[in-house]
Amino acid sequence: MSKLGGFGATVMGTGMAIPGRVVTNQDLERMVDTSDQWIVERTGIRTRYVAEEGVLTTDLAEAASREALRNAGVAPEDLDLILVGTNSPDTLFPAVAAKLQGRLGAVRAGAADVQSGCTGSLYAMAMAAGGIASGAFRHVLVVGAEVLSRMIDWTDRNTCVLFGDGAGAVVMGPASCGGGRVEGFSLRADGTKHDLITFMGGLVEHPASEETLAAGMHHVKMKGNDVFKFVNREIPPFIDGFLEEMGLSPEEVAHWVFHQANWRIIDGVLKRMGLPEDRAVVNLDRYGNTSSASILMALHEAVSSGRVSKGDRVLMSSFGAGMTYGALLLQY
Ligand code: COA
């Protein structure tokens, strides 16, 4: 757990982007052996958005970034660093962040992708906050962007009903800039569970071959029920402990921005904390699980809709492939 000292860090502005094509549960009923009722009851998801042909992760990242920069009142030339959390980069290299830097004309900025499952953007926010608080960076653009639809097996009902495409972005700066001040964060991983969510094909362990294609290794594979159990076991005590270390009770957090993977997971954590449902910011019904974009999209919707008032605390928390997880606390 890290409490921020030094210059502190804050979220100055947020943005998001979604692609144009909506895929409903009814559409999926026509593609795989599933039902709207099963998907809604087991996950809470009703629709998700899928990038049209030719739309890249960098395109969504750019649209979200431009909105976040506008809302923050920061020019691209004033960025010191661009970090993009993504598990579906256009290419393994170059990084999405590097292409984004070029498109934005962020001439003074370094650029790197953070690939750490759905937790990638939360990790990136924590790294940005640490760098800003130390004085090493002044303005950092953090993005979560995904076009996972190109890496999904659309005949596998275990995965294709869950994910959606999208991007969220925040511009971060020193605490003196106002906005949502980062009070602290905690980052964790349990790498012994690395086999729960995987994309194996076409890289070092399994170079692309006819065999990897035949085995469907160029698709996301997930042991969904094991992920579900892991998250329900690990996340509630982790968040409890984090808040205790921050000297806060759950009641003092006004808005809970959880990773938008499954309503049952969010509901379980709220129940464990003894909190009402309306404390959670929920948009997974519309967007599905947008992986590393999810918490940034949810934060953007909460802030831009006026839901978050001055003084409110917002707890962001995510988990994903690795298994990685983490939490970050903001005060507006
Ligand atoms: N439609 C209908 N039936 C489905 C289905 C679908 N889309 N997907 C799976 N099923 C079936 C399974 O085949 C299984 O059938 P069986 O009992 O005949 O074997 C049954 O539903 C129950 O499967 P199970 O995996 O135990 O269901 P679950 O209650 O665990 O729900 C998930 C499945 C994936 C929704 C849930 O485990 C989950 O959300 N896990 C976390 C996933 C996650 O968050 N991933 C992202 C991490 S970043």
Automatic annotation (TrEMBL):
Q: Name one GO cellular component term.
A: cytoplasm
Q: Which residues form a coiled coil?
A: none
Any one Pfam family here would be: ACP_syn_III
Q: In which pathway does it act?
A: Lipid metabolism; fatty acid biosynthesis
A GO MF term: 3-oxoacyl-[acyl-carrier-protein] synthase activity
Instruction: Please list the residues that make up the active site.
Output: C118, H259, N289
Query: Which InterPro entries does this entry report, sorted A to Z?
Result: ACP_syn_III_C (IPR013747), ACP_syn_III_N (IPR013751), FabH (IPR004655), Thiolase-like (IPR016039)
Q: Spell out the subunit comment.
A: Homodimer.
**What domain comment accompanies this record?**
The last Arg residue of the ACP-binding site is essential for the weak association between ACP/AcpP and FabH.
Q: Which family does it belong to?
A: Belongs to the thiolase-like superfamily. FabH family.
Name of the protein this chain belongs to:
Beta-ketoacyl-[acyl-carrier-protein] synthase III
Q: What is the lineage of its organism?
A: Bacteria, Thermotogati, Synergistota, Synergistia, Synergistales
